[in-house]
Structure formats: structure tokens, C-alpha cells
Amino acid sequence: MSENMNENVNETTVDMQATDMPQEEVKKSGLKASFQTLNFRGGIYAIAVSAIAIILVIAINLIAGKLNINVDLTATGLYTLDEDTVEYVSSIEDEIKLYYFVQSDNDYPEIDKVLENFEKAGKNIKLVEVDPILHPNYAAGLVGEEAAATLQFNSVIVVNEANQRSKLVLCTEMITSTIDYNTYTETYTSDVEGQIASAMMYVTNEDLPVMYVMSGHGEIALTDTQKSLITKNNVDLVDFDALTENSVPEDCDILMINYPSYDFTAEQVEVVKNYMANGGKVLMSLDYMAANFPNLNALLNYYGVEMVQGIVYETDSNHYAQTLPYCLIPMMADHAITSEIQGVKRLFVPQATGLRMMDSKRSTITATELLKTTNGAYSKVDLYSMGETKAEEDIDGPFAVGLCVEEVYHGVQSQLLIYTSYLWDDMILSERSYGNRELLLNSINYLAQMQSTFYAPTQNLSQQVPSWTLTGADFVLHTAVKAVLLPLLCLVLGGVIVILRRRAK
Hints:
The model is unreliable at 464-471 (pLDDT under 50). A hairpin with a 4-residue loop joins β6 (175-180) and β7. The protein is of the alpha+beta class. The strands form seven sheets. An eight-stranded mixed β-sheet has the order 9-8-10-11-23-22-19-16. The protein has a four-stranded mixed β-sheet with strand order 3-2-4-5. It has three domains: 39-73 and 470-505; 77-177, Glutaredoxin (3-Layer(aba) Sandwich), CATH 3.40.30.10; 206-449, 3-Layer(aba) Sandwich (Rossmann fold), CATH 3.40.50. The protein has helices spanning 2-19, 23-35, 38-67, 83-91, 109-121, 140-143, 145-148, 171-174, 192-204, 224-232, 266-277, 294-302, 426-430, 436-448, 472-504, and strands at residues 70-72, 96-101, 125-130, 155-160, 166-169, 175-180, 185-190, 210-215, 236-241, 254-258, 281-285, 305-307, 311-313, 320-321, 324-328, 331-332, 349-350, 355-357, 365-372, 378-380, 395-396, 400-409, 412-419, 459-460, 469-471.
């Protein structure tokens, strides 16, 4: 009994000692225990992960501001420069300044964003903004008073600091509008990239070619689209009336003969031959009617070329478009004119007439079949019977539908390019999947001995949805939130849920 009493006394003493422990020490003991709980450790984990995520986003955002990243989110890449444009701009060695005459509250994002991308693309390109109100005489010092008088807000003057050549690009040339009078709707089109790139080519090339366009035989006049394409390539266009002129002007680098509707005179044939004999370059586009022009065919025969009657049909479905055997997809030769198109784009050649080189051509003449049909092609002679069945009078192929004829005589080189289809139709030129536009420019450049160039397409501003961009830090912040912060937050929330479920058990 005594032993039991002693045990009770001891237990009581222990309890009293615990009870008599100072309150502060009790609190410390409880706090320490709480630090070791699963809930607390989960909370610390969540806070740590969130802090790391925030720090990462801030760091990435700061880096983005330094990198000046720009992402074009418009529907058709309105602000993004074409790859060929970037390649050309990055190759410019001269210092080029883009003087942008703009007020801060009256700018066009379609212009200034493209100009910013030009500056980024070329190490020697510098964008300078000028307020035309604060500096009314600034433009005159760059392009002269006469040109400066036509200056509009949001226009650009491109200046080559090396040779002081300059070119004014008006706002209305970069942003154009057309009205459909059937619906009375107005469509706005952006040609900022093409106009600025063209101006750069102009100021970096002092010796620009001149192309005379022949008239007097019912030739098809160049459309505005064709003129714009050629002039943007920095080729001057000048009319040449064969009815009043007895010779081709000396400054003519290229003579263009564009689908004549009736025959030349014998005298006019001699004018072309004399021009060629002195090193002339001729770009000739013909349709099936030209096969019936005796004098024009005599000119072709002089250079060893024979024009076949009729319109060419293909029998190989891989070499005509859709279900139209007279709309050819020709084979291309390995030549400077076609090298940039081969393997990249196809050509659309509708209603072509066959060409052949004559066995009797002069030994000084060499010819390249730039565009050629398959061996299974034939020429349908009876144009009133346009069925796909080959008739007895039809002529067997193969044919050339594009020829490059060159002659070197007494050290003088002349060149004749012949195409026998409506290759330059506006609808075909506007179709980016075909290489017809590149073929036209490359043909001109080859004859003019210019470097190969490019064509920056125009953009329909009504199709730009969404019409906004993310730039610099905004873009990276947007990406970081989606790619870093949100996944980490999901991870934290998942951890919290797991902890709460364990606690509930």
C-alpha cells in the first residue's frame, strides 16, 4: 500500500511540475510542434514555388525588354517583312536613313511598325522620326523644295548617306484605297514594305535601267499592276511609238514588245534588227495570233525561231492546271532566269503557242528553252474545235513556250526573250502560289544585268484580324504567364488539395 501511495505522489508531482511550467515556454513548445506539421510544410512549399514563379516571370520580363522581341499576330503578317526583303536589307553596306515624317498622335501603325522592322533587319538602317510641324523645312533639305512641297503626313524619305541619293515615298503610295462602286465599299491596301524596299534599291543603285514599251501594232497596254511591279523594281518605263520613231533611242536598255494585235511593217522589223545588232535586249510576249504575222515571223526566223500554229495542249496531268490541258505547268530549264523559281514555285502558262529552234540558225546564235512542254504535248490548230481529243491536223510536240536567244557577233551580244502566253495577267501575277511575277522580274533583271530582286506583296487591311501585336516585354510576359506561372500555380493548388485530403483522414 505504501508503494502505491508513493507512485501516486510521484505522478502528482510530475503533473504539478508540468502545470507549473511558465506560459511562455508552453507557447514555444506548441509553436515548434506546429512547424513540424504536414500542413505547415505544405504551406511553405506552396509559398516557395509561387515566389520562384514570380521571380522567373520578372527576370524573363526584364530580359525581354532588353531583347526587344516583336511578334506579329495580324492575320496575314501585316508587319512582318518577307524573307527576301530581310535578306536584301541585311546585305546593304551603305548607311541608310529612313526619315519618317509623323506626329506622335497621328501615326499609322501599318507604317511605323514596318519601318521598325526594317531598322531591325539591317545593321546599317536607321529610323529617324521628324515632326513636320516643328520642322517644316526639314524635307526640303533632303529631297529639294519641289518634292518637299508634295510631302504628306506619315510619308518617308529614304536617304543613302554614302552617295546622298534620296527618294520620297508618300503616305498615299504606301496606304492606298479603292472604292467598289457596286457596293460603295472602300478597301484599304498596305504596300509599305514594297515601297520602302524599292526606295532602298533606288538609292543604292545609281545606274537604273530604262525599258521602252513599244506601241503601234495594237499592243496590250501595261496595267497599273504590271507598271507598279516593274517600277518598284526600279526600272523606268518609257513609251516607244513604232509608227513615228525610225530608231530605238540610245538610252534604251530593254525594248518590250507586249502582245501585238497585228503585224509589223518591213521597216519596223529593220528597226528592231538594227537595235539588236548594236547589243539590244528585247522582251517579247506573243499570243497565238502572232503566228499569222508574216513580217513578225520573219524577224523571229532571223534569230532561228519558228512559231507553231495553234494552242498547246498537254497530255500529262502533272503539267497542266486542274482539268485544263491548255493551262500549262511547264518544265523549267536550269538558267539564271528560272533558278530561283525551280523547285519552289510552279508557273501558270495559259493558252500558249509552241516555239521551236530552226536547224538553219546562224552559228553565232545560242538558245535556251526556258519553259518546255512534255513530249506528249501537241498544238491544236483548229481553234474553233477546242476539244481535248487530238485531231489529225494537230502538231506533235514537244515545244518551248519560253525561249532565251542570244547572239554574239563581232564581240557584241544581243538578247531576245520570247514568251507565248498571257503570263503577265493581273490575276496570275497576284496569285502567290505561282512564280509568274518572279519570272517577269527575273527576265527584266537578266536583260538589264541587274541583281535578282523580289516582290513584296500588298496587304488588304480589311483582313487583319486581330490587328494588334505583342512587343518586347509584353510578349515574353504573356508567354511566361502561360508557360511558367500558370503551370506552377496548378502544381501548388494540387499540393494543397493533397494536404487537405490527408488532414481530413
